[in-house]
Amino acid sequence: IFIPTLYAMIGVNTLQEFVVARQADFAGATGDLSRLLTDIGTAAKMVNMHVNSAGLSGILGVHKAQGNTSKNVQGELQQKLDVYADETFTRVLKSCLKVGGIVSEEQPGIIHVDHSERGEGRGYGKYMVCIDPLDGSSNVDVNISVGTIFGIYRRKSPLIDPASTSDFLQPAGALVAAGYVLYGSSTMLVYSTGGGVNGFTFDPSIGEFFLSHPNMQFPEEERVYSVNDARISNTDPAISAFLSDCRDRGMTARYTGALVADFHRNLIQGGIYLYPGSFDQPEGKLRMLYEAQPLAFLAKQAGGATCCHHHDLLDITPTSLHQRTPLFTGHASSIARLRSMMRASAHPIPEPAGV
Ligand code: AFP
Fold it and tell me: End-to-end alpha-carbon separation of the chain, Å?
């Protein structure tokens, strides 16, 4: 049993200690990425406080601007907590000298971060951050887990100019780091810089994340499949056949409606998450840059795999900032079985535009 305060007493790594210690694994590391990752931890603590007290602090429900409900760039209703989480992560990331640009689910374009404007250094930082500040936010009003997902790329263009769209449109295989925060029965931050996946649990009594899940790997056993079955009537019939095969193999269904929570459970218990495209909407619902790619990177680091209908998702170079993608991620054997069934399908989903 993990008891956070006990871990604190016996001197197990805090997030900050761990991140800094891991820096030594990378020859020539400057500490810039370490600073950025610990800043993300700080913003997560702030959002965590509001998520935990949402029912008491009047921050439940839909956000209104000038009396009207507000929508994000995807046309989805914004919850008050979506807006708070977006403002918090953006504010903290902008103050980090290493960040040159941010793409958030809640903002239409690139948020450029020019440090020279504040007399705080030279131009723009070298890291591009893609973030879904509050994933699964429709769960908040009913007190079910939500999350934050982030991916960090190294920019390709010169630091002296504002970041360009192509600095963000890189394949998941080029991520420098990725992770998520799960605001659940306890709050966890899980991340990878490429040398495995490590999970940290927040100890609210002292306000620190402590290493609680070192070297996370998908277990051998495949136990769970996570899918919204309302989304499979108009998709590739191979997916229904795959789910039926899952049931025959003794797997069971679990789906929360928050990608982070479903991915996290499947990582710990062994399972697969599915959000297919449909014949009407081949690109599906989930966003490539700040949902699919970071989780694909983590899945790979944890011994799992990720695909869309026709490709390994790690190989896809996105073509637009808010691109959507079908997503199948989790246990490597489940993904391999699903892919072979989709390859043999008589009615495959057409390739979405931009892939
Ligand atoms: P919201 O953030 O709008 O609640 O969407 C959550 C999400 O992007 C992802 O976290 C879920 O897995 C998925 O959408 C749920 O979508 P369905 O409601 O279509 O199942």
Answer: 44
Rounded to whole angstroms, the Cα distance separating 73 from 105 reads 7
Token pair, residue 322, equals 């808010």
What is the total residue count of the chain?
355
Q: Hey, CA dihedral for 71, 76, 78, 79, is it positive or negative?
A: positive
Choose the weakest-confidence range: 14-28, 140-154, 217-231.
14-28
- 286 Cα: distance to centroid of ligand 1 (angstroms): 8
Instruction: Give the CB-side neighbour count of residue 295, counting CA atoms within 13 A.
Output: 35
Q: Judge contact between 110 and 234, C-beta under 8 A.
A: no
| Ligand 1 midpoint to CA 135 (Å) | 7
Nearest CA to ligand 1 atom 5: 136
Q: What is the C-alpha separation between 117 and 122, in angstroms, rounded?
A: 9
Is the Cβ–Cβ distance between 149 and 163 less than 8 Å?
no
Using the CB atoms, write b or e for 318-351: b if 16+ within 10 Å. Answer: beebbbbbbbbbbbbbbbebbbebbeeeeebbee
DSSP 78-129: PBHHHHHHHHHHHHHHHHSTTEEEEEETTSSS-EE-BGGGGTSSSSB-SEEE
Q: How far apart are CA 74 and CA 324, in angstroms?
A: 10
Whether the CB-CB separation of 260 and 267 falls below 8 Å is answered with no
Residue with tokens 């020859």: 27
Ligand 1 pocket, 286 CB below 6 A?
A: yes
pTM of the model: 0.91
CA diameter of the chain: 63
Q: Taking 80 as the threshold, does the pLDDT of residue 60 lie above it?
A: no
